[in-house]
Design goal:
The chain is α/β, with parallel strands linked by helices. Helix content is 47%, strand content 15%. The chain contains nine helices and eight strands. Bound molecules: flavin mononucleotide. The site of flavin mononucleotide has 26 residues, from helix 1, helix 4, helix 5 and strand 6.
Length: 258
C-alpha cells in the first residue's frame, strides 16, 4: 500500500514536471475492447427497439401517430449517427472550478468541460455531482480536505438527485483524480442509486496519475453493473486545448459505437 501511494504521488509529480513548460499532454483516444463496444451496442439497440415498440402501438391508433412513426423511421441510425436518441444515457460528473493545479483559477472544472462535450455528442442528460458543503476554492485547502476525506473514507452528502435514474441504461461517470482515487463524493453518488444492469463508462481528468486504478475500483464497487474501460485526459489539456480534447473524445465515442 505504501508503495502504491509513493507510485501515485511520483506519477503526479512527473506529470507536473512534464507540464511545467506550459503545454498540455496530447490527448489520445484509448483503444476500445470489442466486448465494451458490444455492451454499449446492446443498450443502444434496446433503446431503439423500445422506440420501435412504442411506435408500432401508436401507429395503429391514429393518423397523427403515423406521422410520429414516419419521423422515427426517418431518424433511424445510419453508420455515422448514434443508434440512440440519448434518452437512456446520462453523463454524471464531479468537477470543481476555482484554483486548481497547473491551470490557475478557472471558471469551469476540467472534467466538466469533457462531460459537456460527451453529453452534447451523444445527446445525453447531464448531472453535476455536488456536495452540500462546497470544497474550498483555495487549491491547498482543498487538498487538505480531500486528503482527510480519503483517510476517513468519508461519504459527503450530495446536494441534488438524479430524477428517474431507472430510465438510464448507460451512465458515463466522470471525475478528477484526487490523491490517486476518486473524490469521495463520487462514492456517495455510487451509493445513492441502483446500478444493476447499467453500463457504466468512466472518464476522468488528472495531472499525471492517469486513471490511477479507478476503473477497476468502480468495477468492484458496482458489482451488478457492467463497468467498461474509460478515458483519461490531462486536466490542463481539457482546459486549454479544446479542439484536441474534442477530437480524442469523438474518436473514443466512435470506438464505442456512438
Ligand atoms: C484535492 C486534489 C487532489 C489531486 N490529486 C491528484 C492526484 O493524485 N493525481 C493527479 O494526477 N492529479 C491530482 N489532482 C489534479 C486533478 O486531478 C486535476 O487538476 C483535474 O483535472 C481536476 O479536475 P476538475 O477541474 O474537474 O475538478 C488533484 C487535484 C486536487 C484539487
Amino acid at each position: 500500500m505504501k508503495n502504491r501511494v509513493i507510485t501515485v504521488i511520483t506519477a503526479f509529480m512527473m506529470g507536473a514536471m512534464l507540464t511545467a513548460c506550459g503545454s498540455g499532454e496530447p490527448a489520445s483516444a484509448p483503444s476500445v475492447a470489442d466486448n465494451d463496444k458490444a455492451a454499449v451496442q446492446e443498450k443502444l439497440n434496446k433503446q431503439d427497439s423500445k422506440t420501435e415498440t412504442t411506435d408500432v402501438k401508436t401507429e395503429d391508433t391514429s393518423a397523427e401517430s403515423e406521422v410520429v412513426s414516419e419521423a422515427v423511421t426517418d431518424a433511424a441510425p445510419s453508420e455515422n449517427e448514434p443508434a440512440s436518441d440519448g434518452k437512456n444515457i446520462l453523463v454524471a460528473y464531479f468537477s470543481r472550478a476555482d484554483e486548481n493545479y497547473n491551470v490557475g483559477t478557472i471558471d469551469k472544472g476540467n472534467t466538466q468541460i469533457v462531460a459537456e462535450y460527451i453529453a452534447s455528442e451523444v445527446g445525453a442528460d447531464s448531472f453535476h455531482i455536488e456536495t452540500v458543503t462546497p470544497y474550498p476554492a483555495d487549491y491547498d485547502d482543498c487538498c487538505d480536505v480531500a486528503k482527510k476525506e480519503l483517510a476517513d473514507k468519508a461519504r459527503p452528502e450530495l446536494s441534488g438527485t438524479v430524477e428517474n435514474m431507472e430510465q438510464y441504461d448507460i451512465v458515463f461517470l466522470g471525475y478528477p483524480i484526487w490523491w490517486g482515487d476518486m473524490p469521495m463524493a463520487v462514492y456517495s453518488f455510487m451509493d445513492s442509486y441502483d446500478f444493476s444492469d447499467k453500463v457504466v463508462i468512466p472518464f476522468n481528468t488528472h495531472e499525471g496519475s492517469g486513471e490511477s486504478g479507478t476503473y477497476s475500483a468502480i468495477d468492484s464497487y458496482l458489482p451488478n453493473a457492467q463497468v467498461l474501460d474509460g478515458m483519461a485526459i490531462q486536466g490542463k489539456t481539457a482546459q486549454e486545448f479544446s479542439s484536441d480534447t474534442q477530437q480524442s473524445v469523438r474518436n473514443w465515442l466512435d470506438g464505442l459505437g456512438f
